[in-house]
Amino acid sequence: MTQTTRFFLIRHAIVEPSARVLMYGDMDVSVCALTMAQEGAAYRWLAQRLPEGARWFHTPLSRTRATAEAIFAAGYPPVAMAVEPRFAEQHLGQWQGITHEAFSALLTEPPHPFWPHAAGERPPGGESLADVTARAGAALEELAERLEGHDIVIIAHGGSIRAAVSHALGLDAHQAFQLSVKNLSLTRLERQGGHWRVTSINEEPPAGAAT
Questions:
Q1: How far apart are alpha carbons 36 and 151 in whole angstroms?
Q2: Which CATH superfamily is 5-202 part of?
Q3: What pLDDT score does 2 carry?
């Protein structure tokens, strides 16, 4: 009898202002300390919302570990975490580290309506969204097989969470770029008997939650 494996995917905290003006991709930029201090309600909500006894993973980028540690500080019982590099953010190759303004001048084809570049475009020396979906999808399948029936928490990135939902639903890159993933939001996926379903995207604390 197959068991349901539940995934709880959380996008990391907002990064520092100096990074937000850049195409930072998988650069190891820091979270914004001021914003983290203002978002106590979100961390407390996540600490209560996430299931105890889950297996925890974060990516090699420090902003995901910092987010996990903030959830522990807000009340979730601290647990050992493992690093899962397949959920890292999209590597933007030669685009990485340039400003959004400078990047706009480099475009050679029309961008996606909701993204700075075309859905199928691969940055020089980097990854396309399809590449990210392939590696994140492989990670989901492997974890679901190895940890069948467990709850799995992954602190990840907007790009890799978008890729995970794309894998679960079989979306193409254009459709995937139509998904918006908010910082500190919760996305839930389930796998049972080789089949995937998306149970929520962008869960957030209820309106009026105490700060």
A1: 26
A2: Phosphoglycerate mutase-like (3.40.50.1240)
A3: 80
Per-residue model confidence (pLDDT) at position 210:
54
The sign one gets for the Cα dihedral 85, 168, 68, 14 is positive
Tokens standing for 47? 């600490």
Domain spans in the chain, listed from the N-terminal domain onward: 5-202
Q: What is the per-residue pLDDT across 99-108, written as a single tens digit (0 to 9) for each?
A: 998 988 887 7
